[in-house]
Write a structure and sequence with these properties.
de novo design (two linked rop proteins), binds zinc ion, 2 domains
């Protein structure tokens, strides 16, 4: 069996049999990899606690059959214990990995997605004052990485520049009065500005952004991404705002 080495982030784990686990890992070079960690649930396993969700790991794997590889060696680069140990940070981190899991393909190089997730987890590990803002910023960047960059400064229909206040999930951004379908509801005041600020800021938002606009912008980002991923993000509902 061919042996290979990859850096990755553990997205989730599921129990297999009495002592094993299946890991979903987002790797830098091979996209999403599913692999069995044999004996990982036995006391004194040679993998120790190195294969937990959110962990940034360096793995040596055997290529297995039917898309299920086998973990041979595992080194922990960053455990992100701070994220796993706090329920708010953990809810944010779980939403991050859930979205990455939905988006990543197997056998497809996903460096930008991998680096974005790593960056997002690092931001959460700093124990930010507003973890949900870090999550919103991540999901907005993720939409762009996935090819659904939302148009915020020009009409997504005709390209006319300006801040247009109707947001269309399907068409991918703000629409001018001429392009907006009849009966469209404009966004509440400040939401589009909050979205733009979220996109431009470095994983945070100025305290001047009104909390209501910030929350609505966060909901809009989640709806937008869910729409394009084809399903809601379950862990998003657990994040306090
Ligand atoms: Zn237009």
């Amino acid at each position: 069996m061919a042996l290979y080495r990859e850096q990755g982030i553990v997205l989730r784990t599921t129990k297999l049999g009495e002592t094993d686990r299946i890991l979903n890992v987002l790797t830098q070079g091979r996209g999403k990899v599913r692999a069995v960690a044999k004996g990982v649930r036995k006391p004194g396993s040679r993998f120790g606690g190195r294969l937990e969700p959110f962990g940034h790991v360096d793995l040596q794997l055997y290529e297995g059959r039917r898309g299920l590889d086998i973990v041979n060696q595992a080194e922990l680069i960053t455990p992100f214990d701070a994220v796993r140990g706090d329920w708010v940070l953990s809810a944010c981190g779980s939403t991050m990995v859930e979205a990455a899991d939905l988006l990543a393909q197997e056998h497809e190089r996903t460096t930008s997605l991998f680096l974005l997730l790593l960056d997002g987890l690092r931001q959460l590990a700093t124990v930010p004052a507003q973890p949900s803002v870090v999550l919103d910023a991540y999901l907005l960047r993720l939409a762009s990485v996935a090819g659904y960059h939302p148009s915020l400064d020009a009409c997504a229909g005709c390209g006319r520049a300006g801040r247009h206040e109707v947001f269309h999930l399907e068409l991918g951004g703000a629409l001018c009065a001429a392009c907006a379908p009849v009966g469209s509801q404009p966004l509440a005041e400040g939401v589009l500005d909050a979205l733009a600020a979220l996109r431009e800021a470095d994983w945070g938002l100025d305290a001047a952004v009104a909390p209501a606009a910030r929350r609505l912008a966060g909901s809009l980002v989640a709806s937008y991404l869910s729409h394009h991923l084809g399903r809601p993000l379950a862990a998003w509902e657990l994040v306090p705002r």
